[in-house]
Amino acid sequence: MKPPFRFLFIGDIFGHPGRRIVAEKLPGLVEEFSPDLILANGENAAAGFGITPPLVEELLGLGIEVLTSGNHVWDKKEIIPYLTEHPDGRLLRPANFPASAPGHGLWVGRTSSKIPYAVLNLQGRVFLPPLECPFRTADALLASIPAEVKIRIADVHAEATSEKVTMGWYLDGRVTAVLGTHTHIPTADERVLPHGSAYITDTGMSGPYDSVIGVDKVAVIKKYLDQMPARFEVAKGDVRLCGVLVDADPTSGKALSIQRIMRRYNEP
Given this model, what pLDDT does residue 186 score? Predict the structure, then answer.
């Protein structure tokens, strides 16, 4: 029997604190868990809003193979020509954006040990812009993936818990994992669904937790109180790396286990 395929997915990397803790803690996680593949959501890597081309290269240089994103992917204008010039690059944007948008939402590759895998990036529509249907987009993406690619990982970037849970049930048995991102709060509902898909509603944020989902809490409280325009800055305290570790059967692509990962600065 082949050993399990193991991958680490790092939740939304938020600003400089998120990038710093990923750079610091990732080598130890690699040594401890020996993942075959490392993925991360990087859409908030640039000061909490968007990502820039140098930051794409910085994060990929840490050993992350593919970066997913979401509704903030366009926040830094310089990423638009980057995605146009790198149409098959390892920074994904949600696949259910219009086809005319630069970039793509599916990556099919191989690990260093030649195991094929696919990463799907989807964005929800509840409380977010009305994109193409993520469920039908998922169907189309899965139909395009070669049959030999059994490891299939979906980042579902969505606001509503109900939409992410629904996607989990919809894709159960057709992908290795359905991993929720966007809301920056790690949920405690990780499990393997009945037909073999690992699921979690939100992998959590890699960034400062002494905050309001990464933003300085004083500014956010003031905004709620007076409803006046406010400048949001990245917070600095209680920085954590959050994500999940998934083991799967490389022959069938079915998940065997999923566990939450959280590391603080004062932890090994």
Answer: 98
